[in-house]
Write a structure and sequence with these properties.
alpha+beta; Glutaredoxin; two-stranded antiparallel sheet; 4 strands
């Protein structure tokens, strides 16, 4: 749980969103891959489902 959205702010994924013309704040669907040293290796912003799992698997395999 990210009370106060501190982690979301740190990763830059707490964004203004719009649904049915109504603006609100929320988490942008994002995948962050963190390497073995704890550094961000890759960020996939505005994730869509189609093909995403394969793209993430390929990136993780390249890090191994």
């Amino acid at each position: 749980m990210d009370d106060g959205h501190r982690l979301s702010d740190a990763y830059g994924i707490w964004k203004e969103k719009t649904r049915y013309g109504v603006k609100y704040m929320g988490v942008e669907r994002t995948t962050v891959i963190i390497d073995r040293e704890g550094r961000i290796a890759r960020i996939f912003p505005k994730v869509t489902i189609q093909g995403h799992a394969a793209e993430v698997a390929e990136t993780v395999a390249a890090l191994a």
